[in-house]
Amino acid sequence: MLEELKKRRAIRNFLPQPVGRKKIEALLEAATYAPNDRMREPWHFYVLQQESLKQFEQVAFNYLQQRFPTKPHLVESSMKAVTNTPLIIVVTSAIVADDEGATIDNTFAVSSAIMSMWLMAESLDLGMVWRTRGVGLVHETALHEFIGATENERLVGTLCIGYPEEKITTEKKRTPFAEKTTWL
Ligand SMILES: Cc1cc2nc3c(=O)[nH]c(=O)nc-3n(C[C@H](O)[C@H](O)[C@H](O)COP(=O)(O)O)c2cc1C
User: Fold this and answer.
1) Cβ neighbourhood burial of 114 (10 Å; 0-12, 13-18, 19+)
2) Does ligand 1 come within 6 angstroms of the Cβ of 174?
3) Residue located nearest, by CA, to atom 13 of ligand 1
4) pLDDT tens digits, residue range 10-42?
5) Chain centroid to CA 98: how far?
6) Does ligand 1 come within 6 angstroms of the Cβ of 11?
7) 74: Cβ–Cβ under 8 A, 6 or more apart, which residues?
């Protein structure tokens, strides 16, 4: 298990090859088994490919242009994250009215679901990165509106998925757990 966890990496560059329906469904099924408080199963998935992905490109482009009006190079380089991705899955979490604790717990559950998808992606020879910032648009209204999410949903992740352009072999240095642990 530790070896599998070490192998999981954020993959940001993909081949143009599309991801087949069976593999997409396997990712979604993996998410389904994530732990979640009181079985609220608070997740919803929005799958963007081909036509809808092209439309999302425009949403991301408009956002970037508005955000960085004087930095066309930054806009252009940031757009590659969308234009070079064959599949995007936006994952939302349910907001529980008048219950902040439950709403936060729902986000925890959705985060677990995304991790399951990430590990499943690796096992299917796919690469994935969970984006929130930039074209991830998780903290903006543009993507929420575009996918048609309700006001009872909060965006948690914009998952960029595809066949990896290359394998990452460098190890990402991590802080030893001893430095992050207090034994009481
Ligand atoms: C909640 C969350 C948000 C992230 N947002 C972004 C993002 O907006 N853009 C990006 O390039 N990577 C993003 N990442 C990926 C991290 O940068 C990446 O996981 C981290 O650098 C560790 O590298 P590794 O996944 O290869 O181990 C995000 C990861 C998480 C868990």
Assistant:
1) buried
2) no
3) 131
4) 999 999 999 999 999 999 999 999 999 999 999
5) 27
6) no
7) 64, 68
133 lines ligand 1 (CB under 6 A): yes
Identity of the residue numbered 1? M
- With beta carbons less than 8 A apart as the criterion, state whether 157 and 91 touch: yes
State the pLDDT at residue 79: 96
- Are the beta carbons of 149 and 92 closer than 8 angstroms? yes
* Residue with CA closest to ligand 1 atom 26: 9
> Vertex 155, ends 136 and 85: CA angle to 5°?
35
Q: Which residues pair with 159 in a beta bridge?
A: 89, 130
If one residue of 90, 130, 156, 159 were mutated to test the ligand 1 pocket, choosing by the most ligand atoms within 8 A of its CB, it would be: 130
Which domains are delineated in the chain? 2-180 (3.40.109.10)
Q: Give the per-residue pLDDT at 24.
A: 98
State the Cα–Cα distance between residues 168 and 165, nearest whole angstrom. Answer: 10
Q: List, for residues 117-176, the tens digit of each pLDDT value.
A: 999 999 999 999 999 999 999 999 999 999 999 999 999 999 999 999 988 888 889 999
